[in-house]
């Protein structure tokens, strides 16, 4: 990569992002995403997730710089020597989760999740959920506010708030975490192979309705949700060597 690297710049609505994008375009030129060799994302983690979802079918690396409130997936912001930084960056490959959610009316909805797929109760009634892994029942009845499956990249997001374990990037695994569980009282979740196929069956869905989300895509009144890794979809994230995603995940485990 060199100074003529074709970089598309996309910016969030966060104050300063638009000005920063204009500065980068003045320095390094401006191209559309379809003609780009790399996409530079300015904002926070939420905007990064949005950008990755919007470009899931494009095999282009993404280099994020933080100009939002949260930047776990982002590098530090600096307009200087950007082509050199991109050339020296480490690439991390992520495979999202695929969710197939079946509603009470029999409709199926498909969505992908870079962070997590989560099931959540819709009313004040606790959700009752049966959990099967690779076709084998593992939890006959989980009584909780919900349950989620998170990728390694997403294990520091909602999963961490639900007291789930953090997975270092490179671990060929996903994490299954209950949300405010009541029964089984001692069950705290599980770490599963990334190849595992997880099925959630909602018990008493009329009385205890449940919604399912894949990142920010929501499906309400689900009766069954299937989750598996989508190995055909790939996201290529670039990180400064001193700010790799692996290091961030490792450091998060010792944050007080």
Give a written overview of the molecule:
- The protein has 256 residues and is an alpha+beta fold.
- It folds into two domains: 7-94 and 234-252, Rossmann fold (3-Layer(aba) Sandwich); 97-229, Sandwich (Tumour Suppressor Smad4), CATH 2.60.200.
- Helix content is 16%, strand content 39%.
- The protein is built from five helices and 17 strands.
- The strands form three sheets. A six-stranded antiparallel beta sheet has the order 6-5-16-13-8-9, with no helix packed on it. The chain has a six-stranded antiparallel beta sheet with strand order 12-11-10-7-14-15, with no helix packed on it.
- A hairpin with a 4-residue loop joins strand 5 (97-103) and strand 6 (108-113).
- It is elongated, with a radius of gyration of 20 Å.
- The two termini are 39 Å apart.
- The model has no long low-confidence stretch (mean pLDDT 90).
């Amino acid at each position: 990569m060199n100074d003529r690297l074709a970089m598309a710049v996309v910016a969030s609505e966060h104050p300063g992002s638009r000005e920063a994008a204009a500065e980068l375009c003045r320095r390094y030129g401006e191209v559309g995403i379809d003609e780009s060799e790399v996409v530079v994302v300015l904002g926070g983690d939420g905007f990064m997730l949005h950008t990755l979802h919007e470009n899931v079918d494009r095999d282009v690396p993404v280099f994020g710089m933080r100009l939002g409130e949260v930047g776990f997936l982002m590098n530090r912001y600096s307009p200087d020597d950007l082509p050199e930084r991109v050339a020296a960056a480490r690439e991390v490959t992520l495979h999202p989760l695929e969710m197939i959610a079946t509603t009470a009316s029999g409709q199926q909805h498909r969505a992908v999740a870079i962070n997590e797929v989560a099931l959540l109760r819709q009313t004040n009634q606790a959700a009752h959920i049966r959990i099967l892994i690779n076709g084998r029942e593992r939890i006959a009845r989980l009584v909780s506010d919900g349950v989620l499956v998170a990728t390694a990249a997403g294990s520091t997001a909602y999963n961490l708030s639900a007291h789930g374990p953090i997975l270092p990037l490179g671990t060929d695994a996903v994490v299954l975490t209950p949300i405010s569980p009541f029964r089984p009282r001692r069950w705290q979740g599980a770490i599963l192979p990334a190849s595992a196929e997880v099925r959630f069956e909602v018990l008493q869905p009329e009385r205890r309705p449940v919604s399912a989300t894949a990142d920010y895509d929501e499906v309400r009144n689900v009766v069954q949700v299937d989750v598996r890794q989508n190995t055909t979809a790939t996201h290529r994230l670039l990180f400064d060597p001193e700010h790799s995603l692996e290091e961030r995940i490792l450091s998060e485990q010792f944050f007080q």
